[in-house]
Specification:
This protein has about 230 residues and is α/β, with parallel strands linked by helices. It has helices at about 10-15, 25-40, 50-55, 60, 100-110, 125-130, 135, 150-160, 180-185, 200-225; strands at about 20, 45, 65-70, 75, 85-90, 115-120, 140-145, 165-170, 195. It has two domains: about 10-75; about 85-215, Rossmann fold (3-Layer(aba) Sandwich). α2 (about 25-40) links the parallel β1 (about 20) and β2. The longest helix has 25 residues, at about 200-225.
């Protein structure tokens, strides 16, 4: 088995701890990762951990994981203490996008970020988004998860001044092309300044949101110090 090389300094360097992509890894490799983390007393976020792989882990590891099959995520150890002062808005178009939205939500929770969910408010019923836009606009960072034509990205991006992070999903028929149509819609949106993650990458969107909030927190602390607070 390939030797483990952990990036122990990642959280100090970029504000996000090392997380483990389980897709493509053998169960014994994941077991070794969990044993190493437990020996250091470190918590880990596991992503893309499917049910079969989780079932094949050593029982001492499998039974201690906080596992959610829908998002295919697991917490090994305790997540970062919740920082409720600033929440991330997590907007999803429909229930078909829920697995990706939950991956983003669970990642944010592991990173200690509060989340406010706005689910099933896609543009097929535009009133659903317009009814909630006032509440969404109060939050500085908005993750938008949508498949099909990806129209929700431009609608939200055109209505809000918040940082908007688009996550195209692989939901859709035929010409949706496994999420490429939604990805292209996000990349070519006429709503200026939308940030775009890869298809189904709820994890990446959550990390981007956390990076933004890290910098906002640093600026707020610096402003307070400059003002003698």
């Amino acid at each position: 088995m390939t030797p483990l090389t952990f990036d122990h300094g990642r959280e100090a360097r970029i504000g996000i701890p090392e997380c483990v992509l389980c897709e493509g890894k053998a169960p014994e490799h994941i077991d070794a990762i969990l044993a190493e983390a437990a020996g250091r007393g470190s918590s880990l976020l596991l992503t893309r951990l499917d049910k079969a792989t989780r079932a094949a882990l050593a029982s001492k590891h499998a039974r201690t994981l906080d596992y959610e099959p829908l998002s295919r995520t697991a917490f090994a150890g305790e997540p970062t203490a919740l920082q409720p002062a600033v929440e991330v808005a997590l907007v999803s178009a429909g229930t078909s996008d829920e697995a990706v939205a939950r991956e983003a939500e669970r990642t944010l929770r592991f990173l200690g970020r509060g989340v406010r969910r706005f689910s099933d408010i896609g543009v097929a019923g535009l009133w659903r988004i317009t009814e909630r836009i006032g509440e969404i606009s109060t939050l500085p960072v908005v993750i938008v998860v949508a498949g099909m034509d990806g129209a929700l990205f431009s609608v939200v991006g055109g209505l809000l001044g918040s940082a908007v992070i688009a996550v195209p999903t692989s939901t859709g028929y035929g010409a949706a092309e496994g999420g490429r149509t939604a990805l292209n819609a996000a990349l070519t949106s006429c709503a200026a300044g939308i940030l775009v993650c890869n298809i189904d990458n709820g994890f990446g969107a959550a990390c981007a949101a956390s990076r933004i909030l890290n910098r906002l927190g640093t600026k707020a602390a610096s402003d307070s110090k400059d003002q003698g607070g």
